[in-house]
Amino acid sequence: MNRRATVALVLGLAVAGCGDERVDIATADSDICMLNWVVGELVASPAGVAIVAEEQNGKRELSITWAPGMTATRTRLGGIDIHAPDGRVVASTGQRIKLMGGYGDENAWTTCSDGVYPPE
Question: In 1-120, where does DSSP find H-type helix?
Fold first, then answer.
């Protein structure tokens, strides 16, 4: 392999690894699910990922406690992907989504394990 091809391969592998940085997100201890919905845009927050909820009185940011086993990684472009326990990406920051679950407290939403959907 010539030197130019070797350099290209090394740079390509370095860039490919940039999207694997884990992001800390809050996860629930159990998968008890409330059957309510919230719709809004996922955004990065100091606590990991939040949703800017669209409510009757306007919008407000809610922290999210994700279902057990869900994880998050930073993308190459600086966004955050949310992964189901099987590794599938189910949501990304900047995306408008619908989350099934309920209020854990006044300013936090707790999701269900299969409760991440595109909005209708």
Answer: 3-16
Task: Report d(CA 83, CA 88) in Å as an integer.
Answer: 5
Alpha-carbon span 13 to 83, nearest angstrom: 22
Side-chain-facing half-sphere of 41: CA atoms under 13 Å: 8
Whole-angstrom Cα distance, residue 73 to residue 5? 30
What's the pLDDT score for residue 47? 78
Evaluate if residue 43 carries a pLDDT over 90: yes
Enter the tokens of residue 100. Answer: 């099934």
Torsion of CA 30, 97, 52, 63, to 10 degrees: 10
Closest by CA position to 47, among listed 18, 72, 20, 29: 72
Task: Record the pTM.
Answer: 0.78
Chain centroid to CA 74: 9
